């Protein structure tokens, strides 16, 4: 088990290094940082001075190593636009995205798992067909359009919920629902398929034959195995939500890292964009790592591979 | 699959699942295949014959007829501006909304097909190579896939598009280079399954080269899975294009991208909500048809893959 954890962690670290190299290459190939700092009104001399001051005249791989060394020490550089440390800029925006992601994820799980269990218990029943229809329709609705329609109905017409901001709990309702709606069908289908498969299995048949009551069979024997695959998919979905919140946060002007990312991209502030890509990638790597460890702990057969 | 006994119970179970699921397939499978196929064909026809379906120009601005509501506003709300000249109304620049929606289908479909073509080539190559050769090649390719998965698509796409400036080509290229992961993962596992079958062993025994085995023995057998993944990726690509264009870092005005139309209609949200409803419904229908088609193909070719 320890060996498995160690090997899996090593892969995670390597992935992060690869992401860092790609992010660095992307942002440096793209924007001339000296020009971005200097602004539009700068002369050629100004730009040359800035290039020497910040060390942009060094070879790229040396710049990357210096940048990577700073990151390991917790220094993510300076924001070109806000003229203060990137870590401050990102950290003060992180809580909103975390709350939004967590609420949306919980919402998706709370709806998807019971619905998936009910649908899986009686395949082809009316509740199963309802659940499948919801899943098929849900996967076809673009979540930013759902958000806009939410604003039209609940903010403009009913005046129940705010159309923008992230100050009060009410302003989290529409964004969370819009984000959750996208992840829900996947989780629901997976729970349903897991239930159908485990209810067919020998140990559930044995449990039934022993005379256990149906709720006991479903909750204690079937469900535990049915939701095993959910662990890793949940990690992936949660990671995708953090990345996918860019669109939703921008629509609702929520002060999270998604909106910050959009602002930084449109105002060409590469250090902040780099930091946000790295932050989201780190979350993804940590989440999938935890999911793999949990799975290996629950199911020893996975430890070998 | 270590013992014969295990094999027997597994296949028995699969059989009973398949039997029960054939009922669902009959109910949903063919129905979704038909609805999805016909719907998608209809939208493709609309996109191809767009100039014949409307007498307006999608780029023609008319400042005297801006924000005309759709025809049903004339029926139900007695709005005198609504009329048959602009059945779905006009946008804030006076361009005919129906015409722009019809021409918008061209963009979404073109993006969908092009992105899938590009990502299919990349993902399938990587997946088949990883599955066929295994070992170190598999480890390297799996690492590349994991790295790609940990990069947030929307964010990276936004950043790249902002660098090269938004255009149809850039959006297609960026999405195609980002969305190959599902092809790679699925093709790898399908190739692994096929590789161990007898006809592949036979081909190898006869002395076929690796390239020949991949092209003549493996590829024809992954086609079904390829179609299913292609429909999923096409739906994803269409939604991503709309999202990027909506955020202003995708397809640029005056092209009638549905995502861009949603962005242009956003300031009208308080007075003309229909301007937001219509492009969304168009997007929803296209994605729904593509998904239904994929579900239908999966039900017919691989009923056990249904989840």
Summary, kept brief:
The complex is a heterodimer of chains A (305) and B (307). With 305 residues, chain A is mostly helical.
Describe what this molecule looks like in 3D.
With 305 residues, chain A is mainly alpha-helical. Chain A has helices spanning 2-30, 33-38, 44-54, 60-72, 86-121, 126-140, 143-157, 173-199, 202-209, 214-226, 228-252, 257-266, 270-298. In chain A, helix 7 (143-157) crosses helix 11 (228-252) and helix 12 (257-266) runs antiparallel to helix 13 (270-298). Chain B is mainly alpha-helical and 307 residues long. Chain B is built from twelve helices and no strands. Classes of the chains: A mainly alpha (305), B mainly alpha (307). At the A-B interface, helix 1, helix 6, helix 7, helix 8 and helix 11 of A face helix 1, helix 5, helix 6, helix 10 and helix 12 of B.
Task: Give me the secondary-structure topology.
The complex is a heterodimer of chains A (305) and B (307).
Chain A: H1 2-30, H2 33-38, H3 44-54, H4 60-72, H5 86-121, H6 126-140, H7 143-157, H8 173-199, H9 202-209, H10 214-226, H11 228-252, H12 257-266, H13 270-298
Chain B: H1 4-48, H2 50-53, H3 71-76, H4 97-133, H5 135-150, H6 153-164, H7 168-178, H8 181-195, H9 198-206, H10 210-246, H11 258-265, H12 274-301
Helix pairs in contact in B: 1-4, 1-12, 4-5, 4-7, 4-8, 4-10, 4-12, 6-7, 7-10, 8-10, 9-10, 10-11, 10-12, 11-12
């Amino acid at each position: 088990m320890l060996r498995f954890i160690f090997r899996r962690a090593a892969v995670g670290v390597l992935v992060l290094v690869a992401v860092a190299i790609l992010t660095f290459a992307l942002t440096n190939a793209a924007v001339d940082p000296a020009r971005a700092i200097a602004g539009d009104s700068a002369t050629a001399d100004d730009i040359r001075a800035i290039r020497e001051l910040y060390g942009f005249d060094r070879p790229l791989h040396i710049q990357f190593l210096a940048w990577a060394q700073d990151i390991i020490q917790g220094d993510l550089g300076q924001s070109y636009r806000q003229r203060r440390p990137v870590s401050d800029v990102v950290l003060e925006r992180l809580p909103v995205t975390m709350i939004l992601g967590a609420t949306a994820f919980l919402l998706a799980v709370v709806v998807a798992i019971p619905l998936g269990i009910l649908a899986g218990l009686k395949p082809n029943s009316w509740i199963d067909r309802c659940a499948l229809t919801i899943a098929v329709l849900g996967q076809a609705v673009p979540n930013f359009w759902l958000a806009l329609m939410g604003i039209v109905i609940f903010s403009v017409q009913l005046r129940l919920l705010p159309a923008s901001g992230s100050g009060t709990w009410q302003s989290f309702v529409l964004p969370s629902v819009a984000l959750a709606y996208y992840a829900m069908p996947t989780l629901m289908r997976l729970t349903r398929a897991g239930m159908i498969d485990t209810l067919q299995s020998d140990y559930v048949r044995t449990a039934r034959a022993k005379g256990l009551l149906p709720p006991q069979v479903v909750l204690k024997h079937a469900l535990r195995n049915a939701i095993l695959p959910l662990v890793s998919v949940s990690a992936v979905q949660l990671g995708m939500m953090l990345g996918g919140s860019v669109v939703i946060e921008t629509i609702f002007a929520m002060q999270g890292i998604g909106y910050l990312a959009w602002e930084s991209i449109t105002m060409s502030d590469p250090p902040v964009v780099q930091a946000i890509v790295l932050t989201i990638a780190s979350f993804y790597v940590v989440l999938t790592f935890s999911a793999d460890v949990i799975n290996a702990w629950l199911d020893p057969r996975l430890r070998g591979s | 699959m270590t013992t014969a006994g295990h094999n027997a119970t597994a296949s028995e179970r699969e059989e009973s699942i398949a039997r029960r699921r054939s009922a669902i397939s009959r109910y949903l499978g063919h129905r979704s295949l038909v609805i999805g196929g016909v719907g998608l064909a209809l939208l493709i026809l609309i996109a191809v014959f767009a100039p014949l379906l409307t007498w307006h120009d999608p780029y023609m601005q008319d400042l005297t007829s801006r924000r005309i509501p759709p025809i049903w506003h004339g029926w139900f709300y007695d709005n005198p501006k609504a009329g048959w000249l602009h059945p779905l109304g006009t946008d804030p620049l006076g361009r005919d909304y129906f015409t722009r929606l019809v021409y918008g289908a061209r963009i979404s479909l073109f993006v969908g097909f092009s992105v899938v073509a590009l990502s299919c080539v990349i993902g399938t190559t990587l997946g088949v190579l990883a599955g066929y050769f295994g070992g170190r090649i598999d480890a390297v390719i799996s690492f590349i896939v994991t790295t790609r998965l940990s990069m947030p698509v929307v964010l990276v796409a936004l950043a790249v598009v902002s660098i090269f400036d938004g255009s149809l080509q850039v959006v297609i290229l960026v999405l195609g280079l980002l969305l190959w992961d599902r092809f790679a993962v699925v093709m790898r596992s399908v190739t692994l399954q096929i590789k161990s079958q007898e006809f592949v062993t036979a081909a190898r025994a006869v002395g076929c080269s690796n390239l020949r085995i991949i092209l003549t023995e493996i590829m024809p057998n992954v086609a079904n899975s390829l179609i299913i993944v292609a429909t999923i990726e096409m739906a994803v690509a269409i939604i991503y294009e709309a999202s990027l264009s909506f955020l202003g870092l995708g397809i640029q005005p005056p092209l009638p991208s549905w995502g861009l139309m949603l962005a242009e209609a956003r300031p009208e949200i308080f007075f003309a909500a229909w301007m937001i409803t219509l492009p969304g419904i168009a997007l929803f229908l296209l994605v729904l048809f593509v998904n239904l088609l994929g579900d239908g193909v999966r039900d017919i070719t691989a009923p056990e893959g249904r989840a």
